[in-house]
Structures are given as structure tokens and as C-alpha cells.
Amino acid sequence: MNTNPLVDLDFNTPEGFIPFGEIQTSHYIEAIQHHISIAKNKIKAIEELSTPNFENTIEALEYATYEVQYIHIMAENLNFADTNPELQEVALRLGEITTNFWNDISLNNKLFSQVKQVYQNKENLNLSTPEQKTLLEETYSFFTRNGALLDEQQKQKLRKIDLQLSNLSQKFGQNVLAENNNYKLVITDKSDLAGIPESIINQYQSKDNPNEWIVDLSYPSYIPFMQYAQNRNLRKELFQAYNTRGAQGNEYDNREILKQIATLRKERAQLLGYETHADYVLEKRMLSYPSKVEALLDQLLEKALDQAKLEIADVALIASSEIDELRAYDYAYYANKVKQTKYQFDEERIRQYFPLSQVLKGLFNIAKELYGLQFILRPDIPGYNREVEVYEVQEANGEHIGTLYLDFYPRAGKKSGAWMTEFRLAHIRDNKTYTPHISLVLNFTRPQGETPALLTLQEVLTLFHEFGHGLHGLLGKGKYSSLNGTNVYWDFVELPSQLMENWVYEPEILASIAKHWQTGEPLSSQDIEIIQAVSSFHEAAATVRQIRFGKLDLAWHYNTREFSPLDVNTLEEEINQSTALFPAEDGVLLSSSFTHIFDGGYSAGYYSYKYSELLDADAFEYFLSQGKVLDSTIGAKFREHILSKGGSEHPMTLYKRFRGQEPSMDALLRRLAKSTK
Asked: 219 pLDDT band (50/70/90 cuts)?
């Protein structure tokens, strides 16, 4: 009997829960090579078919690669959330192996010939569901967009490029993680912590030395320091450390790596017949052309820039009694003072009403009211780290839906930020239904002694956001995993997540989720009004910031310039000319730690956040149109037409089915008009 549980993937656990404790890092390479061998035999059988059809070719190919994807995704997830040097090496090797595997498929002439034959006969197939039609279209498109129509010399060049891109992206992400882990601001004079609430100071307290406080670059550490620390020099030092990651001339410098990535992506796109990487990517997006993305960003910038400058001027005014010029590292500190002065918003006091357990309970209740779900804590199901909480998700009648892993706190082997991912998406294979295993990975402030984890308002929003993604993954009802859950167009994928954020600011919801962690006292009506007032605080400045990221993304991916001689600073300066709200800081770069586009799925697609905001603003107004905050009727429509459908149909078709019409920008512009100084 093979002792590697990933070889047969028969975990013999309820609902196929992964026995993380039995899996060793050394298991991944052996297992993936085993399953690639099996997959190749299945593909060979497809090649030899005399009469290819939808079932024996398109469906068969979908299922043939499942185990390979499953193992690779599992290892990738752990490499992001709970890594170590051994796993990082394995992840690099797996990236090479799977890149070669997918190239072996996409560049397989015999296999493509079979797929093409089925595709060209699609009018006579009598496919019974839209999902089947989409699978056929996407399968054919997978081949044509990945080199099936190239000659042999071009195919070999494509293989080389893809392998290089896999390795470079992995290296980029590992460098950012190393920069995060290696930096520590060690404070030995407590007066340098002036202005910071005592509860946060306790969080910084060194475990080894009572006379030291340590600030790092994780969000729960970095953000409060920038908001509260009176010591301007230390704010500047921390700001510089955070915003020069990957650009410090050390072994983790990403500047040459990112230029190589951008250059290779351009070469790959042109090899496949597209002018730029953005043209290639956007062919499979709701905004189909780079010019449409530029138009969206420019339109929003025109609406937001003047208001954003007024917002920054408002902060500069309150800062003028203490400093000569407002810099980027001053903004969070003085913006917080504006909130406190104008709105009496005291984030440290407010967070006392947001203990994580209470917020989570309220969030689960929203899902129950809107979608009829219940969440059962399952301590008997192992997580990939002892801190991970595991929940079984059920229908109201107790029917099992899926499994939700919640990973709340930062640690050394974990990337910063927050994200949703899946270990397994729902699908049906061999007449058996496989339920989803979804993970939400977060980086919230840890409990301190007797004090539980208390969330800032931004952390509450982050939890709601990622939970929206989680619902998208959990509620998929499709037959094919490749078209389920969040496997949708990237400028549609943020709709469920950003929609969830809207409920945070509703008085009825705040009354239910916000209760003081010691007394159980609910948030006062006055505090609820304050939170609502600050909900649109500096919305214009936030919009300009997102536009800046979107334009920077396009600058790297929507042009044909030569990147090798290009100084990264030059490109960023070009973007800053139209979007900068503060004077430039020496050495500061966004690109060198921009993991979304260089080690994630957002290349040529970062604008998706703003387009999805257009969708979520339109959708939330529809939710409120019936006069109820938690309208289960509209919730049922959203579940049926959006959450359960995944990528089974074009997203605009799904949205119109839910909303009854195409989305309008009007709701987003109304939201922007509410931006407060």
C-alpha cells in the first residue's frame, strides 16, 4: 500500500476532507507525476477515438486533468498561506512540471484535431445545457489561445516562455514574502510609540524583551502604526520599508524580474497573434478591449480627481499646524485626525464593538437570511495549520453544501493581504457529486491575552469581502469544476465580494454584528451614524488610488515598448503625472511588490475592482429597492443566477437575468458623489 495519500486521493474521510496531517511536502512531486502519467493515458485514448463527440472528448478531457489540478492547487494554497523553504522549492518544481503538462496538452496536434472536429460539428451536437455549450467553447478557446495553431518552432518558443513565466512569477512572490518577513522596526524607547493606543502597543510588545516593541510589515502591524504613531520619522521609515519592497538592490530585488515578466507576456501575446498582453487577456473579459478599460478609468478619474484633491487638501489643512508639507506617509495619520475631529470617529474605541467571533456570527446570519445557509463549527476536521477554523456549510434543512476553512491571523510563512481560494470546487463526475472545499485567508490582529481579536472597520469590510468570494465558491451548482465558483471573467469575479461590503454600513446590520466585547452592549445609534458618515470618507481619493493601480497595470501590459532598458521609475512617473495626490518619495515603487499582477491573476485586469464596483453598486440598489436590507427574494435570485452559475454562461447574460437589465454606472457615480472630506 502506498503511504503517499496524494497518490490515490482516496482520503477515506467524510466528504473527502483533506487529511493535512498525513501529507508531507515530499509527497507532492511523486503524486503529481503519478497523476500526470494517468492523465496522459486518458488523453491518448481521446487522441485515438474514431468518432469524437462531446462526451468522449470534451467532457473526458475536463475530467482527465482533474487530479493534476487538485494537487497543484493544494500545494499552491499552502505555499501562499503556510509555507517554508522546503515547500517553496517544491512549489517552483511543481510550477515547472504543471507548465510543461499544460503545454503538452495545448500544443498536442492530435488532441486539438479531435477537439476541433467536435467544435466544428457543434450545431449538430444537440447539447442540452448552456454549461455544456460553454465548456465546448472554452475548451476550443483554451487550445487556440495557448498555441494550438502555431507551427512546431513557434510551439517550442511558447513552451520556453511559459516555463520562464512560471518560474519568474514564483520568484517574484517569494521575494515579496521574504521582504515582508525580513523587516522589523525595533523600538526601544516607548516614547516613540506616542499616540498609539495601548492595546496596539501590547500587540507590538516583544515576546523576548519587555523593553522592545516590534513593528513589521503585516497589515495588522503596519496600518495602525501609520494611523496613530506621532513619530513622523518612524512613520516615514516604515512607509519606505513597505513601499520599497522588491526594489532595494538586494537579493530580493524584483525590478529586473518584473521587466522580464512583462516582456515575456508581450512576446507570448504577439506569438499568439495579439498586439499586447492586454489585448490577449481582455478577449476573455466583460470589457473586451484595452480601449474600453482606458475609457472606464479615464471617466472615473475625471469624476474623482478634483474631489480627491479637495479631500487631501482638507487633511493638509489640519496637518499644517504641525508640518510644512503633507507627504504620503502622513496621510493615514492626519486623515485619522480628520475623522476624529469632524466625525468623532475613534477607530480604536469602535473596534471594541467588533470582536471577531461576534462579527463572524453576524456574517453567518446574513448568509442565513439572504441565502438560507447555516455554518457548523467542525473541530474534528483538520485544517492545514492548527489556527485554521473549519466549518461545515449546510442548507437550512441540514443538507451538506461544502466546507469552509477560515485562517485569520498573520504568521511568518503567510503572504500579507487577504484572499479566497479553493482546495476543491463543486462538480459532478461519474454520477457522484463532489462538494466544494473553500478557504478564506486573512491577516487580522491577533487576540492579546484576555482580549479577543478586535477588528477595525476596514478588517470587518475585508472579512465581508472575502466571505462574498467564499459564497461564490460554496454555492456553485455546475457539473464542471472549470466553470464553477469563481471561475468567471476577472472583471465579474469581484461582484459577490464587493456586494457583501455594502451590508456592513446598514444600521440594521451594524446593530446585529457590533457589540462590545466585554459588556455585550450594542453599538449606539450615534456611533452607527458616525460609521455611516465615514463610509464614504475620502471615497474619491480611494478611487484615484485604484485608478492609479489600474493604469500602472495597463502601462506594463498594454504597449509594445521594450522593457529591458526601461527604468521602472520612469514608467511609474508617467502614471503619477495624472494620478499622484502626494509628492513623490525617493525609492518608492508600486510595481516591485505588485503581486496582484506579477504573481496573481490580475495582469491587465486590475481595473476589475472598479468595474465590479460599478456592478455591485447597481446590484445593491436593487437589493434595497424592495425596502428591506436583507431581502431573501432578491437574495434567492442572486444565488440562483449569479452565485450558483459560476462561469457557465457569459456574465452579462447572468447579470441581466438577475437584475432584469444591464448594469448602469449611475449608482457608482451616486456613491462617488457622496464622498466626504
From this structure: confident
Predicted TM-score of the model (pTM):
0.89
Answer yes or no: is pLDDT of 299 > 90.
Answer: yes
Task: Give yes or no: residues 23 and 141 share one domain.
Answer: yes
Check whether residue 425 and residue 368 sit in a common domain. Answer: yes
Distance CA 660, CA 58 (A): 33
Residue 585 lies in a domain: no
Q: What mean pLDDT is predicted for residues 473-489?
A: 96
pLDDT digits (tens, 9 = 90+) for 381-414: 999 999 999 999 999 999 999 999 999 999 989 9
Number of domains into which the chain is organized: 3
Mean pLDDT of the chain: 94
Question: Cα–Cα distance between 235 and 248 in angstroms, integer?
Answer: 18
Last residue of a domain, one of 129, 149, 169: 149
Helices 232-243 and 219-228 sit at what angle, rounded to 10 degrees?
Answer: 150
Domain around 41 = 5-149
One domain for residues 75 and 207: no
CA–CA distance from 89 to each of 25, 100, 470 (Å)?
10, 17, 29
Rounded CA Rg of the chain: 25
User: Cβ(351)–Cβ(457) under 8 Å?
Assistant: yes
CA distances (Å), 119 to each of 56, 107, 223, 483, 605, in order? 13, 17, 52, 18, 29
The per-residue pLDDT for 9 is: 85
